Amino acid sequence: ASTSHLQLAAFALGTVGWILCTISMGTVEWRVWHVDNTTIISSGIAWVGIWKVCFISYLHISPGYKEQFCHKFSGYDFSIPYEIYAAQGLLLIAMFMGLLGLTATVFALRNVYMGITHKTLITRFFLVGGFLYVFAGLCILIPVSWNFYSVTQNQSIAFPPSYYMPSSPAAQEAGAAIPIGIVAVILLLLSGTFSLSYRFPVMETTVRK
Q1: How far is CA 179 from CA 69, 127, 148, in A?
Q2: Between the CA of residue 194 and those of 4, 5, 55, 126, what are the distances in Å?
Q3: What is the distance between the alpha carbons of residues 198 and 126, in angstroms, rounded to a whole number?
Q4: 181: how many CB neighbours lie within 10 A of its CB?
Q5: Which residues contact 6 (CB under 8 A, 6 or more apart)?
């Protein structure tokens, strides 16, 4: 068990990375749009996520009250850029692969700490867990980088009229989901590196005369 401290750290980091992946996937603040027309988007700020777009509106609301309006993306919205739909699929894959990686690591650690000296089984499960962590991290890295690039280029989106969103913002910035995703990538890649570095200890045998 004393030889698997890095792999135990890999499980801890992988767990946090997987949680951050799910948080990033569910967070709507991937892109923060600042708009000039506040007729409907009263606060002048809209949040563009990978599943929906939301904004605060005071329209038809009693004074002192506000309401958040959200429009979910559908597969029929061909105007939605590819990086948003790619992020949906890749983050779902990352969440599933990360969960499998955690399962493989738990199984290997269980054998180590229970004293089961099955070298091939333990090593293979650590290797599988490591590859799954790395794969999950890369699946997160692609949509995070792609969407961050779109933000830096201030790219527009031709939303359908029913969304009540302008086609381009006055300015936009990266939302909270992107740094959360970056941290998840770092933790998962570290987890994969630690898991892949496992070496089964050489068992010393003493010969009695």
Answers
A1: 25, 28, 10
A2: 10, 9, 42, 9
A3: 7
A4: 27
A5: 194, 197, 198
E-only strand ranges, 99-181: 171-174
Q: Which pLDDT tens digit goes with each residue over 120-178?
A: 777 888 899 999 999 999 999 999 999 999 999 988 888 888 888 888 888 899 999 99
Distance CA 141, CA 70 (A): 26
Instruction: Return the H-helix or E-strand segment holding 5.
Output: helix 5-26
- The amino acid at residue 57 is S
Question: Largest Cα–Cα distance of the chain, in whole Å?
Answer: 94
Residue owning tokens 């493989």? 104
Q: Round to whole Å and give the CA distance between 32 and 46.
A: 6
40 has pLDDT over 70: yes
Q: Is the pLDDT of residue 46 over 80?
A: yes
Name which of 52, 56, 51 is nearest 69 in CA terms: 56
Q: Does residue 180 carry a pLDDT above 90?
A: yes
Query: Which helix (DSSP H) or strand (DSSP E) does residue 47 occupy?
Result: strand 45-48
Q: Does the 1-27+76-161+174-197 domain belong in CATH 1.20.140.150?
A: yes
Q: How far apart are CA 123 and CA 138, in angstroms?
A: 23
